[in-house]
Amino acid sequence: MAKKDSEETKNTPASMSMIEPRLRNIYLSFYKESYFTPSALDLKTKELIAIGVSLVARCEGCLQGHIKKALDLGSTKEEISDAIAIAVGIGAAAVVDMSDKAAIKLGLHHFEP
After folding, report:
1. What domains are there in the chain, each with its CATH number?
2. How far apart are CA 15 and CA 83, in angstroms?
3. Average pLDDT for consecutive 10-residue bins of the chain (113 residues)?
């Protein structure tokens, strides 16, 4: 199995290999500026936010990277769990929002509040 994983990794292009270098550099500059430049939020808080956003955006690579960075910055499993729980709540709210809009458009009201 490990051999197959290494073969798959070997045949997998590098991240952002499909993006023109000029645009890739613009993105990386923005990322570095918004993420690593000191601001009102400390880096640990930014990582916890990034965990939640990665979940909602469904970016597995992002999630793994941000969990690792959060742990490296001293985040506890409880803090990471809280970030995940908030993402679950936002994800659920998005489903509710979409179903509310569909109900309005279709004139459906199965259960009155």
Report:
1. 20-106 (1.20.1290.10)
2. 25
3. 55 84 94 90 96 96 97 98 97 94 92 78
Contacts of residue 61, defined as CB under 8 A and 6 or more positions apart, other chains included, come to 15
Start-to-end Cα distance in the chain: 53
Reading the block at residue 45, the tokens are: 């808080």
Question: What's the half-sphere exposure (Cβ side, CA atoms, 13 Å) at 94?
Answer: 8
Q: What angle do CA 40, 47, 68 make, to 5 degrees?
A: 150
Which residue bears the tokens 């956003």? 53
Q: What is the pTM of this model?
A: 0.77
Residue type, 47: E
Q: Dmax of the chain from CA atoms?
A: 57
Beta carbons of 49 and 73 less than 8 angstroms apart: no
pLDDT at 8: 55
Identity at 65, one-letter amino acid code: G
